[in-house]
Amino acid sequence: MTPFVFRLFRNNEVAVHELNYLFWECTTRCNLHCRHCGSDCSVQSREKDMPLEDFLRALDTIPADHRPKDFIVVLTGGEPLLRPDIETAGREISRRGFAWGVVSNGWFFDEAAHERLTAAGLRSVTISLDGLEASHDWMRGHSGSYERALRAIGLCARDPRLAFDVVTCVNRRNLAELPELHRILAGLGVRQWRLFTIIPIGRAAGDPDMLLQPDELRSLMDFIVDKRAEGGPMKVTFSCEDYLGPYEEKVRDNRFFCHAGVNIASVLIDGRICACPNIDRDLFSQGSIYEDDFYEVWEKRFQPFRHRDWARKGPCADCREWRNCLGGSMHNWHAAGGPDAPGTPALLQCHCRSLAMARNLDIRNIE
Question: Residue 315 gets which letter from DSSP?
Fold first, then answer.
């Protein structure tokens, strides 16, 4: 698809803004202590788990004729498998005609959990694997987490009922381990491996081991290009997290498009309505399920997500890639610090600019 045709497609998607992907941040409790956690989750979270009936009331506001066939509800956290009522939640979501899935660290996903959850209608699973054993356990803050994740990956990869992928947060410590991880995951029968980098928020904000330098980011892109060229049953892709300039369509199937607030919404742990859970919720929340009709909020608000002219400032102001990028992913915009601009969105990182630096180019001169 040419850039021009893609921009027409993107404009139409924004105009229609069909909701087809809904995150439910059902808990912020977590059994691990990950170095890169954007939500700073813990075993004893200060937030109580949202009652299932509260979420279901929000879900019930979506009209039956506005539910596309590919609509999915994804339970995230924290670690969603810590909820004692997760099977009940899955059955209730399924009973309403929605597919549902989980994003999990894999610790509790053993054979018994697999059978219980699939019996409750589970159809989608994402498991994180963040390096070989030492690197993964270091990043997850708990020895044994690598073996638990591999067990979960094997169970899901063997189940043809599941839409399943493995995600890896690429950082400075695990970058060199990607070829071996590729071999291991392909051997387990994984069909989809999704790589992404880490946003400098939460625990990762002040950790220099987390954030790739420009040359390292380029190395990651080249690795993905090479693996996609090799083919094979396991598809390797870069996530939808940012615009990549010359690497567009070389490392993913489609051109960059931040679907947050266009096709994706979330119900956060405290009831706030937003898009992806990693987006700055204080800046970009659009309402609350405890005060508003969820679907009415979806239809009538979310303007900062659908019309991005507000982002054309700072490093984006004179960028010639603006029409293709629109300021990148919403999760890269967080509140600016300092007394001069309280509550003002600031761009935390730009992969296109970093890749241009790695190639000694000026971003303003990239077509």
Answer: G
